Amino acid sequence: MVEVSSTVIHFTGMQMLLLTGLFLIAVLGPLWILKRFAQIVPPVYKVNGIPSGVGGLLLMVVGILVAQAVSALYHFGRAAGEVQRVIAMDSSFWWAAAQTLIPDLVSVVCLLTAIGALVFGRTPFALRLGIVMSWLGGPLVAFLRYLYLGLPIEVAGEPTGLFFLTIVMTLYLLFSNRPALTYGTESGRHLAEQRGVFNL
Known about the structure:
The structure is a single chain. Helix 5 (124-137) runs antiparallel to helix 7 and helix 7 crosses helix 8. The protein is an all-alpha fold. The chain contains 9 helices and no strands. It has one domain (55-194). Helix content is 70%, strand content 0%. The longest helix is centred in the middle third of the chain and has 34 residues, at 56-89.
């Protein structure tokens, strides 16, 4: 009779606290640096009494994208190690192993592009690019996971949460005053003209 044993990893409270702290540092550290860099580039319009520039909820959107990028980088690093091990055992499976990296690689590239566009860009195009790349790097990567990894798309799974979160972020970026003034959209220009403030 063959006895099968399963290994279950249990984390202590201190280990969970340490992991949570490391994740927060990995997200808040880059976010603080990005906020400093974002302040170098002024918003397109400044209006008294209405906030503009990368701060407030706009900074929170960037923070969510940073958290997603950190998670995607972590998964990409782990998967790259597994791919390297598979290729070392049998190099004939290199493409089958390497293509499992595609979803996380696409996610990382798209999310970093979205972060860069929102932090350093000050045009309506930068805002649109940030929105499109956040969609490509977030919920739509689930379709790549389905194609390359065969992972099912479930209503209660990861894509659904990212889908609704990305909808909320998109609505904020498209219709809020801060992004409109920061990136100089048409509604930002109208708002600045109403207040008697034009391009800086």
